[in-house]
Task: structure prediction
Amino acid sequence: MAYRAHTTQLYALVLGFIGWTLTAMALGLIQWRVWQVSHSDVISSGVAWVGLWRVCFNSHTLVTPAFMFMHCRSMGLTEAFTPPEVAAGRVLMLLSLVVGLCGNAGGVYAVRNIYFGLEKSTPVRLAFFTTGALCLLAAVMSLIPLLWNLSSVVTNQTISFPPEFMMPAAPESQHVGGGVMVGLVGTVLMIVSGIIFCRYRLPVSSHLRTTVREQVHLDPPVQAEAASCPGKDNPAFESQEHL
Result:
């Protein structure tokens, strides 16, 4: 049955949706880079978080009105101090979300077709392949900034923040935050989903049913032609009847 033969594609659709959701979560998290700084009156906890959109740290003296104990400053995309991996991360992650959303929508369309049936197998295979290609493209778009920022942390690269950010010139140490990890997990799920979709093949039983259905549609004209031609009696049988 269709729901048994295409269970893998249904799982791939679920994995793609989870991966896309994790990618969206990673985009909004501030924990891409975790800076360990010297304890000061401004950065009370000694920890600062650098994300794609803003820089935050806990403080008892500087508090953003929207938060209770946290101070945040936004980083502009075209600011001179904004590192290229952060600027590229914004653009590529947003594009990844758009492409991934299209891929998930294509997956819903393809799964719907195999569960409700189609006349021919070509549209189904094309829909699955397109869905898989979009998922893989979205994964590549998100993987580039994730690995780029991961490399910046591993090589201990710093960011020259303006004085109003109240950030030190360089951290004492830094490590990868949860935002990168969440994004990597989402990217892996998108890759797995895309590979499953691209490797889709129509089950043999479904292909046979499609062939039979096409023959049924082609048979009526042949049957009509046969019905229009009157049959002739076999002379051998006629001779036997006379005897």
User: Anything to note?
Assistant: The beta strands are 33-36, 47-50, 54-58, 70-74, 173-176.
